[in-house]
Amino acid sequence: MAFGDVFRVRRAEQADYVAATEVLLRSRHASVPAIPPLVHLDEEAEKHFVETVMPSAEVWVVETDSAVSGVLVLEGNWIAQLYIDPDWTNHGPGTALIELAKVDHPEALELWTFESNRAAQRFYERHGFRAVGGTDGDNEEGEPDIHYRWVRGNVVSGDRVDTKRPPTGTLETVSRTTVVHNQVDEYDVYIGRAVPEHGIDDSKWGNPFVMANDSDAERERAINAYREWVVAQPELMSSLEELRSKRLGCWCAPRPCHGDVLVEILDRGLMAMGESESSTNEQQL
Question: What single DSSP character describes residue 242?
Answer without folding.
Answer: G
